Amino acid sequence: MMVPVDGFMYPNEVELQWSVLVVVYPFVTGLVAGAFILASLERIFRVMAVKPTYRLALLTALAFLLVAPLPLQLHLGHPERSLEMYLTPYRGSAMAMFGFVYLWYLLAVLLLEIWLDFRRDIVLLSQSTTGWRRLLYRALTLGSSNIGEGSLRLDDKVGWVITLIGIPSAFLLHGYVGFIFGSVKANPWWSSPLMPVVFIFSAMVSGIAMVMLVYMAMMKVRRQPIDMRCVDTIAQYLLYTFIIDFALEMLDLIHRIYEADESFRSLDFMVHTRLFFSQVVLQILLGTVVPILVLGLIQIFNVPEKLRRLAYAVCGCLTIVGIFAMRWNVVIGGQLFSKSFLGYTAYKISLVSREGELIAAALLILPFFILAALMKILPPWMDEKLEAAAAD
Amino acid sequence: MITRRKMLVLLPAAAVAWKFVLAGTPAEAPGYHPSTPTAGALGTPGYDHSQHWWGMLLDIDKCIGCGSCVRACSNENNVPEGYFRTWVERYHVSGWEQEVPQVDSPNGALNGFPPSKFEGGKNFFVPKMCNHCKDSPCTQVCPVGATLHTPDGVVLVDEKYCLGCRYCIQACPYGCRFLNPTKRTAEKCSLCYHRITKGLTTACCENCPTGARQLVDLKDPNDPIHEYLKTHSVQVLKPHLATGAKAFYHDLDGSVR
Amino acid sequence: MSKFKDAEHLVRLAMAFALVAAVFLLVRAHFIPKSFGQYGHYRGDALAELADKPLHYAGHQTCETCHSDVLELKKAGKHVGVNCESCHGPLARHAEDPASVVPQLPDTAVLCARCHETNLAKPKNFPQVVSAEHSGGVVCKTCHQPHNPLLPQESGKTGGKQS
Predict the structure, then answer these.
(1) Domain spans, chain B
(2) Which chain C residues are closer than 8 Å to B41 by Cβ?
(3) CATH number, domain B50-133+192-250
(4) Taking CB atoms and an 8 Å limit, are A89 and B143 in contact across chains?
(5) How far is Cα B101 from Cα B125, in angstroms, rounded to an integer?
(6) pLDDT tens, position by position, C65-85
(7) How far is CA B20 from the centre of its chain?
(8) Stretch A351-377: mean pLDDT, rounded?
(9) Domains of chain A
(10) Strands B213-217 and B54-59, how do they pair?
(11) Which of C3, C17, C31 is facing A87, going by the closest CB pair?
(12) What is the ipTM of this complex?
């Protein structure tokens, strides 16, 4: 093996099993769950201030959800056998849940909610457009063109129920990923009952930050003013979620240091050396402490609008990087040390390969292209135009 | 009914068996084979799963680190280079402290070990392999049922069904699994299932010159290793993880990971 | 009824879902391997497949059926527990068709050292030598008979000496 081993590792442990693609996957599903929770803030919890981002959040969630299976397929030794997850899922395996939770969330929650919310626009578009667009919209109407008051009210009620179901579904979609790691007793870096909870809260943080960034970017692109009341509220919720997330991660850390079990010395050394930059610098300092401080200061002091916008943009980006680093630290970090607690290996990532840096980067950029396409088909700001047209 | 004739046969047989027990793992006598050589293969009549429950005894007292087991396994099972279904570790414990042994395993001990760098202290070899756990975490996490417990207690990988997701490799506390680079499926020690179901012993046991590795049938009351396990002090690796490991170590030092 | 008309699109949706579910169940029934679940949550056929792999080592009982003379020699000495193929390599094909594979005699200069070269980690009572000091470069086979290695003057047993 050409990988440099420090100390002793079991011979089969030297090569990492789960690559950067397995880091991308929880990052992406985390964004999905987080974006959805932001959408549900308005729908269920009546936080009307964030309504401008409602549709955008749903579409963002969908764009990322469509990309989510790709890193997994690229990682599998035999992707052509992935149908087996649906044929003979082993109920004792958290990973087997993936297929069904994903399908449930995609079909029964996200697509359904989007369809119900956009249905009026879809019907109107099916009547006003021509060519292949018309066919597409006609198909999406499922043949029904009823957008009378009664049907729309029904849509609203059903949509409310779907969103309500969607919240625990989103937690399940991402929480089970945390459980995939948290339930592995062989790996003390992963094995923890806190793992699913930490994953969910960091997902919420990343999803909220992502929607905030996309909203601000889209307003800039459309040359529209940013609704500051909306963005201020999102930033507030980002701060609250961050505080909980940070508290949970610190709890895990303090607990580890205090109990100092057989794995502690080995893990401690790893964090101070191989994982120092990604864990301490990127995840904790830049990715969590700085955004919390900045967002906290904005709550306390009166910061002018322009500066606030800049702060939100910077914090949003730092958050995204920090949460990606968190996934990296969990997945890659968990494989850098030996289960004999006597040694360390290194992750040799390649640039151009099936599981390399380029593919990872492409998978992270792809959702934005999909989002752009979705926004063309289902414009989030359509109802403003229609209402303006109806008023004439 | 025990007739005089039967006693004439039983007594000497009992004496021989007792001698095996007293001798510890049989090093002087040719290895006892748990199934009779006439037992048939799985597909043919003769091999009955329900009659067997397989395990392994590894005697640290006897291991000389020659690496014969590693080479034998590699030959028998076409193990790809750089990956190991079994391997041997060499431990050096300098004082009374058990927490920081010096361990090495050059190429899994495929070519044995070079001379030791250390003077004094405790030094010994530890063969490692799949522990064929009764409650294996690897089968628990396989999403599709590609890794399995046979009815006779062997943990195997169905290479036609495995997706190559590598979750089982992550879940194994003993580091005995790897991904076969050409087949792209998970792989590990199969306890030479194709041999033990034909009444032969595993390749590693067959080739161990000192009897440090011995196959054991935990359902066979006549198996002297079975008897040995009931009368000698043995341990499993990482007992706190409650995997139900069936690779039993005799004379295992506390520093062994 | 206006109520039904309002819900018409939802009914259509429900029907679409039901169709997808039905198709899924059909696909599933078709593709699940027949032997799955026979012994547990896995393909029952896998057991026979895994038991059917080719043998590379014949096992010493097989060697002994033909080479009983060597067995007699071994029985009297210290290498009685060392099985044939651990020195001679995998020979199942030779056992199947002796003429097709002629086993090569192992080079004792390399072979013996694997077990008997002194190493701190070997059990203290295991016979080990520093070969340079022990034989000064002379090949092991010159003095020791591998099947019964003790030299006659070292023990009362009938040892073997290479003539």
Answers:
(1) 50-133+192-250
(2) 51-52
(3) 3.30.70.20
(4) yes
(5) 12
(6) 999 999 999 998 999 999 999
(7) 19
(8) 94
(9) 11-239+351-381 (1.20.1630)
(10) antiparallel
(11) C31
(12) 0.92
